[in-house]
C-alpha cells in the first residue's frame, strides 16, 4: 500500500489480518526485540527531524520551527528513550498475595493496537502511542489526520522504511478511511481528537467490543488565586496559550481571576505578547491556524462575542493588518463573555482566551464543577487550603499547579481524560499497561 492510496474497508482489514497472524505465529516479542523495534523509531526521528519540521510548516501554512522541534521530535524522542530504558522493569511479573501456592500478574501483548491521531502535534502522537504499544509487544496500525497531508505522508514513508507491514503499518486518507479504520476488530484502539468524533469512534469500536482509550480534550480552566503572584501566573498562562497558537488539547481554555485583578491580568498579557511576539504577520515563530474552516470558526466566536457586547482585547503589538488568507489570528482576550456564547461552549483550539472574574474562591470552584470535566486544570497560588480544595473538589484528567500543561509532558504520569474529556490513559508505564493484558496466574501449592 502506498502512502497516497485511499484503502477501503477490505484493504485495511487485510493488513489487520496479516498483523494478527504474525502476532500469533510464534513467541511474543522478547524485551530485546521490543527494544530493537523502539530503537528503529528513535532512528527515524533523529534522521528525519528537518523533514518533519518542514512538512509541519507546510501543512500549517506557517508553524513555529522551535515548537515543532520540541513537540514533534524532542518530546517523542524522550518518550521512546525512557520507554526503552525502563522496559525490562515494566515487563517483570507482579507478585500478589495468595494463602497457599503462588499468585502473580503477567503482562502480555494484546495483539494489534490501532492508533488514530489528531492534526495538532501529529508526530508526537504517532510516536508516543507507538512507544507504549511496541513496549507492550503489539503490532500497530496507525491512521494519521488528513488535515496535515504532507506530515502524514512523510510519517507513512518513514514507517515503511523501518518496519515490515506486519509489524507497524500506516493507513492514510480522508475521513472515510478513518471511519473504516475505526470499524476494524483491533485488540485496542487509541483515538485522539474532538469529542464529537470520539462518540462515533466509540460506537464503531463497540460493534467488535474493542477496548478504547479516548483523549478528547475539553475546556481546561486556569484559576488564579488571590494568593498568586499575578505577573508570574498571567505570564505562564499566556505563554502556554500561545504555543502552537493555542492549538493544543491541554492549552488553557479560559481563565478565572479575582475581579479586582482583571484589568491587571489584561495588561500583563499585553506585555507578554509584545515581548514574545513583537510582530505577528511575518514572524516564523507565530503559528497559523491549521486550515480555513478552523480559522472561520474562530472568527465566528469573535463576531458573536462582539455582537453580544463583549469587550475584545486584541494583542497585536505592531498593529499589523493580518491577511486572512494566511490564517494568522492575533491573540485576543475576551473580557467576561457570557456562558451562552459559543466560545464558552466549545473547546477553543486557537489563540483566543476568555478571562472571567470571580468574587469568592468558592465561586471559581463551582464554575468549574458546573461544566464538563476538562482534560487539564491549572491553579496558581500559595494558599494551601485553596490548593487542597482544587485537588479534592474538582475532577479533571490531570492538574498542574503554578504552571500549565506540564502534567501532560511527564512520562511518569498517566495522560488521559475523564468524562467528556476522555477515558483511559497512556504514557510511560501506564501506556505499557493500557496496551497489555494483565493476566492473573495462580499456581497451587
Low-confidence spans: pLDDT under 50, at least 5 residues?
none
Shape: globular
Beta-sheet strand percentage?
15-25%
Q: What level of helicity do the residues show?
A: 40-55%
Please tell me the overall pLDDT: 96
* Strand order in space, largest sheet: 10-11-12-9-8-13-14
The major sheet is characterized as: 7 strands, mixed
Separation of the first and last Cα atoms: 53 Å
How large, in whole angstroms, is the Cα Rg?
23 Å
The helix-and-strand class reads alpha/beta
Number of strands: 16
Q: If helices are DSSP runs of H or I spanning 4 or more residues, what is the number of helices?
A: 15
Topology, please?
Blueprint: H1 9-24, H2 31-47, H3 49-60, H4 65-90, E1 94-96, E2 102-109, E3 112-116, H5 122-135, E4 139-143, H6 149-162, E5 168-170, H7 175-182, E6 188-192, H8 195-206, E7 212-215, E8 220-224, H9 230-242, E9 252-258, H10 262-276, H11 292-307, E10 311-314, E11 332-335, E12 352-358, H12 361-369, E13 376-380, H13 384-393, E14 398-401, H14 406-409, E15 422-423, H15 428-434, E16 436-443
Parallel strand pairs: 3-4, 3-6, 4-5, 6-7, 8-9, 8-13, 9-12, 11-12, 13-14
Antiparallel strand pairs: 1-2, 2-16, 7-15, 10-11
Helix pairs in contact: 2-4, 2-5, 3-4, 3-6, 4-5, 5-15, 9-10
In short:
The protein is α/β, with parallel strands linked by helices. It has helices at residues 9-24, 31-47, 49-60, 65-90, 122-135, 149-162, 175-182, 195-206, 230-242, 262-276, 292-307, 361-369, 384-393, 406-409, 428-434, and strands spanning 94-96, 102-109, 112-116, 139-143, 168-170, 188-192, 212-215, 220-224, 252-258, 311-314, 332-335, 352-358, 376-380, 398-401, 422-423, 436-443. A 7-stranded mixed beta sheet has the order 10-11-12-9-8-13-14, with helices on both faces.
Amino acid at each position: 500500500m502506498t502512502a497516497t492510496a485511499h484503502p477501503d474497508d477490505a484493504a485495511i482489514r487485510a493488513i489487520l489480518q496479516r498483523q494478527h497472524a504474525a502476532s500469533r505465529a510464534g513467541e511474543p516479542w522478547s524485551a530485546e526485540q521490543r527494544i530493537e523495534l523502539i530503537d528503529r523509531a528513535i532512528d527515524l526521528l533523529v534522521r528525519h527531524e528537518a523533514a518533519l519540521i518542514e512538512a509541519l510548516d507546510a501543512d500549517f501554512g506557517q508553524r513555529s520551527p522551535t515548537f515543532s522541534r520540541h513537540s514533534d521530535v524532542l518530546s517523542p524522542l524522550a518518550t521512546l528513550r525512557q520507554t526503552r530504558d525502563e522496559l525490562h522493569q515494566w515487563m517483570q511479573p507482579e507478585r500478589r498475595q495468595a494463602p497457599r501456592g503462588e499468585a502473580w500478574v503477567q503482562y502480555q501483548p494484546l495483539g494489534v493496537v490501532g492508533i488514530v491521531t489528531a492534526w495538532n502535534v501529529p508526530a508526537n502522537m504517532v510516536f508516543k502511542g507507538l512507544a507504549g504499544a511496541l513496549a507492550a509487544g503489539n503490532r500497530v496500525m496507525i491512521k494519521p489526520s488528513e488535515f496535515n497531508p504532507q506530515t502524514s505522508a512523510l510519517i507513512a514513508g518513514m514507517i515503511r522504511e523501518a518496519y515490515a507491514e506486519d509489524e507497524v503499518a500506516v493507513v492514510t486518507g480522508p475521513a472515510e478511511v478513518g471511519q473504516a479504520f475505526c470499524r476494524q476488530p483491533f485488540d485496542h484502539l487509541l483515538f485522539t481528537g474532538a469529542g464529537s468524533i470520539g462518540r462515533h469512534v466509540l460506537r464503531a469500536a463497540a460493534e467488535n467490543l474493542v477496548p478504547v482509550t479516548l483523549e478528547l480534550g475539553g475546556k481546561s480552566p486556569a484559576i488564579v488565586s488571590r494568593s498568586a503572584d499575578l505577573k508570574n501566573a498571567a505570564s505562564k498562562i499566556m505563554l502556554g496559550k500561545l504555543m502552537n497558537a493555542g492549538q493544543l488539547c491541554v492549552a488553557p481554555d479560559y481563565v478565572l481571576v479575582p475581579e479586582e485583578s482583571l484589568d491587571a491580568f489584561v495588561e500583563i498579557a499585553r506585555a507578554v505578547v509584545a515581548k514574545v511576539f513583537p510582530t505577528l504577520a511575518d514572524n516564523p515563530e507565530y503559528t497559523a491556524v491549521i486550515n480555513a474552516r478552523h480559522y472561520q470558526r474562530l472568527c465566528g466566536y469573535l463576531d458573536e462575542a462582539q455582537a453580544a457586547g463583549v469587550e475584545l482585547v486584541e494583542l497585536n503589538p505592531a498593529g499589523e493588518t493580518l491577511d486572512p488568507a494566511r490564517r494568522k489570528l492575533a491573540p485576543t482576550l475576551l473580557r467576561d463573555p457570557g456562558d451562552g456564547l459559543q466560545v464558552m461552549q466549545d473547546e477553543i483550539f486557537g489563540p483566543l482566551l476568555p478571562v472571567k472574574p470571580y468574587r469568592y474562591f468558592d465561586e471559581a470552584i463551582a464554575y468549574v464543577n458546573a461544566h464538563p470535566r476538562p482534560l487539564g486544570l491549572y491553579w496558581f497560588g500559595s494558599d494551601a487550603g485553596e490548593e487542597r480544595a482544587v485537588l479534592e473538589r474538582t475532577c479533571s484528567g490531570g492538574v498542574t499547579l503554578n504552571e500549565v500543561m506540564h502534567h501532560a509532558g511527564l512520562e511518569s504520569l498517566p495522560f488521559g481524560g475523564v468524562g467528556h474529556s476522555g477515558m483511559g490513559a497512556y504514557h510511560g508505564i501506564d501506556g505499557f499497561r493500557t496496551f497489555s493484558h494483565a493476566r492473573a496466574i495462580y499456581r497451587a501449592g
